[in-house]
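Data card: per-record layout.
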Amino acid sequence: QQIPKLILNFINSKQKQIHVAYAILLNNHGEIYSAIQQLKQQPYMFLFLRNISRLTFLTDPTDIISVARDVSHGLKKVYINKNIDSQWIIKRFDLDIPDDILEKLAEDTKAPDKLRFIKTKVEMFFATKYKDADGIEKLREQDSILFSYLPTKISEYKFPVLINANFLTNVNREQIHTDSIWNQWLFAKIADQMFQWIKELVKDNKFRFQAYRLIPWKLNLIDNLLSKRFNDSFAVAIKQCNFILNRKNQLLKVS
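The structure for this 255-residue chain is written out next.
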């Protein structure tokens, strides 16, 4: 379809060359403006995307949301118009998938092909907010949503950190399949890996006891298999992981 002259004039008027993948005609200006304002209130939604680090909204005035990695401190900083909006510590885990999970996943007709024929490893990410003055900050309940690289609308699972994994959700990303063996396995790994990360942060002189702010609560959802898998794993991890630091800098288990 031919690109309207208005769009061509806009592209040609820019000093820097613009590469256009899609041009979409939007009629409801008020709705689009509202969506951009909402995006500015939650700019961290792009934390887990690998190939997008900057969004520019050529509105009046122009708004720029960007994510930059501070290599010296291991932080990701989210900016709005060059002002820091938030800072995040990101942790990546490579998880070995058990053979029995791979077999059941291959038979799961609900799962997309990219999951059904996944190889032996999968990645999971945690992100915790960090402030220079206060250190590690536990996530507010209203900000606790699951990510599947982009944010979902799944907010009933209250974790102290943002969690990003290849969750199996419905098409509009509003619900997670609780009967999925894959999701159940991922939820069990969340508890285990969370205590491992706390243990790692406790040993870092920059964070130390701030890490204990990330100790999760058990999930209180009734008749929910994901909640049950997490809680079962939580009960084991909190006893088996030596994440308690004593005065001699020794890591101990909960007695």
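Known properties of this structure: The longest strand covers residues 83-96. The radius of gyration is 21 Å.

See the next section for split statistics.
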